[in-house]
Amino acid sequence: MIIDKPLSDSKRDKLGFGNIAQSLASAFLQNDLRQGFVVGVEGAWGSGKSSLVNLALDELCKKDVGPKVIKFAPWLVGSRNELLTQLFADLEPVVLDLLPEAERDDTKKILGQYAKLSSGLAVLADLAEVGGMPYASRIAKVLKKSGQKAAELSERSLGDLNQSLRGKLARLDHPIVVFIDDLDRLEPSEVAEVLRLVKAVADFPNVAYILAYDPEVIADSVQRALGISDGRAYLEKVVQASFKVPSAMNFDLRNWLKDEVSLLLGEVTIDVSAKKRLDGVYHQWCGEYLETARDVVRVVNSLKLNFSPVRDQVDPADMVFLQIIRTKNSELFNWIESYVSSLSAIGDWGFIQKGAHTRVGQELLGIIKNKKGEEQALFVYALSEHLPGFDLMSLHRSVGEFKVFAVNGVEELQPFIAEKRLASPNHYSYYFSFTGPAGSLDDGEVEQFLVACEQAPEKAIARFRQLIGKQRPQGGRFAELLLDRIVAARASVSPTQVGGLFRVLGEVIDELAPFAVSDRDFADFLRGERREVFGLIEKVGDEDVRNGILRELFDTAKSLAWLTGIIRAATFEHGLYGDQGKPEGTWLLSEAEFSMAKDIFVKRLLSASPSELLQVPHFSNLIYAWHQLGDAEGPVSWIKDQTETDHGLLEVLGNMTSRSRSSHEGVQYKLRRSVLDTFFAGMTVVEKRLKKIASDEMADEEMKREAERLLEMFYDLE
After folding, report:
1. Does residue 395 carry a pLDDT above 90?
2. Cα-trace Rg, the chain
3. Which positions fall inside the KAP NTPase domain (predicted)?
4. Are 223 and 267 within 8 A, CB to CB?
5. pLDDT at position 135
6. Could you give the C-alpha distances from 372 to 92, 276, 368, 369, in angstroms and in order?
7. Is 145 exposed, middle or buried (0-12, 13-18, 19+ CB in 10 A)?
8. Is 70 strand, coil or helix?
9. Which residues pair with 212 in a beta bridge?
């Protein structure tokens, strides 16, 4: 961590304070320090005023005629009555060191008596102000009789000592500069006491004072403590001249942060797009929020704490952006954390709570309410570089219309997942809690699985089965998440890994289908589309290698449901069935590849046993794929053969049910009318057979119950 303390030498100077300090030191020396004066160095908290004074004092001490420096810390003093005592205690060793040895004992005695009498007067003043306490009236009477005499005696003695002390100090070879830092961090009453103290002893010869403070804070403290209307006017009576610390150039602050981030990144290589985003962060958010040296220190320390442990799991640009926001706008930081957490729900469930789109958008505008019009729009546009889902067009409509969460599905978040961005459902938690979201897989495990697919497929198969058996807190299984992560990381998947991955998935992906989280009747990951896992075939550019992978997949894969999804997608894409044909240049499989795949697929269906086909997940999709390939009679004839017996009819119908969702019933399983009309003898014939089985007194009870269950699904179609 960078320790947030003032600079003591120019080696750590990042903002050009060294040159300013030299000029400030020269300005001090041009005054006659022997006369004593009070100088104020003014600046906001974190502006570097303490560092600037330290560097100036360092320059003064280097001069042959330079002063001796005392750093007085009033916040360490226990009470107001001890302030003067402590100041003289700090002055004593310096004063004595500058005097001839013969005068030291006498001077030490004078300093002690002066401090004691001054503190005594402060005690009398305190007693005079006592009220509302036991014996207060008695104390007041005593003070009336003896306190005034004691005060007069003390004042006369103090005057004599003052003259003696002034004579001693006037003979010093070097002046003394008393630096009182962080005056603006004291309580209002303490601020008033320190200013009174400085005012009381500011005219000692050879003793000058430098006070560092925020003038706005000090003026307010004096007004509150003394009950006066103009704290600045009071301050001007104490401080004879002041110097304002110049505002740091944003260019310098930005470059300082860039240097520190470069050190944090070390040898980590970031790609062109990430570097461009990082440059954008420096330009936009440093200009927006970094104002002082302390701002940079706090951002860098926040990065060292929050970025270093997870730098392989996050995007550097997003992390720097987030830590700048965390340091300077905690309310916006909290909003961002809530937003990306809710955004991850789109990846898991595909929806956001009703009304949240506008409500959360208005919350954001409320946080940045100080920005209006074009300035507000530019700020929101800048945020959208890191946070997807902003409906920027709605920002320009009537008040209250700005919407967020404008993301249609997890596919829109895939680029953020691939680059480990702040808005990635798989990575956002690393930005806030050093660990991935609950129910997530880290990038290392995904990478290890891909390597195992190529080098140790049996281990990869075993691991995939383990993940099928492992349920996520959000629903579904970890194996489905693994597939999503692989698709999101497609840029880093090598062509050689694709072949190994397809061999592994060809063995086990169908086992995941019964656990798929989907409103549709066919698991998304089984679909042969670009955005699903089969789309990785595009990573293989060599035609012969592609043919080899596809032939092996369709020849040997046990996962017939996955092959079904691939075939059905190509059937529609090539226009072989339906009206959704695409231009040839957009096909995932070429004409030759599709022809080879469908020929192998049909041969496997014809050679498979009925029990093997009936065990395929989403069996109705397999039958439809077969039907849509042009062999319409093949699946109809197969079903006719399998449904000659009542047992066969019940088994086939049971496997032809499809998922259906309604708002009041949730997910239901139905027998679709189109299924009965296409592959059976029609609704009437099937209904008649089911009723006969259900009412047959001689039929097996289990068969009768199954017939009744299917009839309920059947009647729902009416």
Report:
1. no
2. 41
3. 19-304
4. no
5. 45
6. 58, 28, 9, 7
7. exposed
8. strand
9. 41
Quick one: which H or E segment has residue 244? strand 241-244
With beta carbons less than 8 A apart as the criterion, state whether 25 and 208 touch.
no
pLDDT digits (tens, 9 = 90+) for 28-70: 777 776 777 888 888 888 788 888 888 888 888 887 777 888 8
Q: 667 pLDDT exceeds 50? A: no
Find, among 506, 451, 439, 519, the residue nearest to 479 by Cα.
439
Distance CA 572, CA 603 (A): 20
- Of the given ranges (65-79, 212-226, 322-336, 596-610), which has the lowest mean pLDDT? 65-79
Q: Extract the tokens encoding 568.
A: 């059905």
* CATH number of the domain within which 187 lies: 3.40.50.300
Q: CB-side exposure of 353: number of CA atoms within 13 Å?
A: 6
Q: Which two tokens stand for residue 416?
A: 């953020």
How would you class 267 by CB atoms within 10 Å of its CB: exposed for 0-12, middle for 13-18, buried for 19 or more? exposed
Helices (H) and strands (E) in the chain, counts: 33, 7
Structural domain contains residue 64: yes
pTM for the full model?
0.63
Among 404, 433, 462, the domain-final residue is: 433
Q: Looking at the structure, do residues 194 and 80 belong to the same domain, yes or no?
A: yes
Cβ burial 287-322 (10 Å sphere, 16+ → b, else e): eebbbbbbbbbbbbbbbbebbeebbebbbbbbbbbb
Helices (H), 171-249: 188-201, 215-226, 231-238
Instruction: Dump pLDDT digits (tens) for 273-298.
Output: 999 999 999 999 999 999 888 899 99
Structure tokens at 662: 């309604």
Decide if 439 contacts 445 (C-beta within 8 A): no
- Burial class of residue 425 in the structure, from the number of CB atoms within 10 Å of its CB (0-12 exposed, 13-18 middle, 19+ buried): buried
Is residue 471, in this structure, part of any structural domain at all? yes
Contacts of 238 (CB under 8 A, 6+ apart): 38, 195, 198, 199, 202
Co-location of 92 and 229 in the same domain: yes
**Residue 188 domain-assigned (yes or no):** yes
Domain boundary among 403, 433, 463: 433
What one-character DSSP code corresponds to residue 522?
A: S
For residue 41, give the 3-state DSSP assignment.
strand
pLDDT band per the 50, 70, 90 thresholds, residue 319: very high
For residue 323, what are the domain limits?
A: 250-433
As given in the structure block, the two tokens for residue 361 are 């958008």
pLDDT-derived band at 717, boundaries 50, 70, 90? low
Q: What is the pLDDT of residue 13?
A: 67
Q: Tell whether 454 and 403 lie within a shared domain.
A: no
Taking the CA atoms of 585, 588, 593 and 598 in sequence, report the sign of the dihedral they define. negative
Q: Are 360 and 343 in contact (CB under 8 A)?
A: no
Domain count, the chain: 4
Q: Residue 213: in which H helix or E strand, if any?
A: strand 207-213
The answer to whether residues 421 and 457 belong to one domain is no
User: Two tokens at 649?
Assistant: 């009819």
List own/partner pairs for 60-63 with CB under 8 A and 24 or more apart.
60/25, 60/28, 60/29, 60/177, 63/25, 63/29
Same domain, 560 and 579: yes
Helices 591-607 and 560-573: angle between axes, nearest 10 degrees: 140
Residues 343 and 218 in one domain: no
Q: Please indicate, yes or no, if residue 202 is contained in any of the structural domains.
A: yes
Question: Do 520 and 604 belong to one domain?
Answer: yes
My answer on whether 77 and 35 are in the same domain is: yes
CB 315, CB 421: distance < 8 Å: yes
- Evaluate whether 427 touches 313 at the Cβ level (below 8 Å): yes
Say which residue the tokens 């089911």 belong to.
690
d(Cα 501, Cα 453) in Å, to the nearest integer?
5
Ordered alpha helix ranges (H), 266-372: 272-281, 287-289, 293-306, 316-328, 330-348, 356-367
CA separation for the pair 641, 77 (Å, rounded): 100
